[in-house]
Input
Amino acid sequence: MRQLIIDTETSGLDFVKDRIIEIGCLELINGIFTGNKFHQYYKPDEIEISNDSEKIHGLSNEFLSKFSTFEDEIEKFMSFVSESQLIMHNAQFDMTMINNALKRLGKSPIDAESVICTLEIAKKKFPGSKNNLNALCRRFGISLESREKHGALTDSFLLLQVYNELLGGKQQTLSLKVESNTKQIKKSFINENNKIVNATISPEEEESHREMLKTLKNNRW
Output
């Protein structure tokens, strides 16, 4: 069974006006992270990113101006998604943003039946508690060291661990190990059979991330 952990960042919270500016996806096969992923930044066309949103994810119109819009690149995303089951935190927001983009292009929306919302799972499991991603990471002892700002790929890796814990913590990733050199960054995941599965971030993604960090004030990344 193929599943995708998906997170998005947007120019704001208006479903009609705002646009997707970053997407991160991680591929799971039979519950195991394969190392295959999808990550892309997008410019929000003529939409100005709100100050509140920029404070959250650190992405500016200036940094994103060199990328295509999500609508221009949506076929690449949909090709990666294919017919997979999607796993998202606060899926209603992410799915509305994605489906609105599809609607603007006259394309069929993604069926809600194919989506698992980890926020809804957490609400049922921990009623009355805070169940945002930060709170769940703290509850499960998942390090937030990598989350100085929200980022679609970073948050997807965090959500992968949270999802496993919500299922009982029996599938994969009790720990993350980050190794880097001048060519690549690897995140290693230990599965239930004690086999290491590596996710490799390409030099292009690493460079895009460095360029984005240059635009942040007082960042500690």
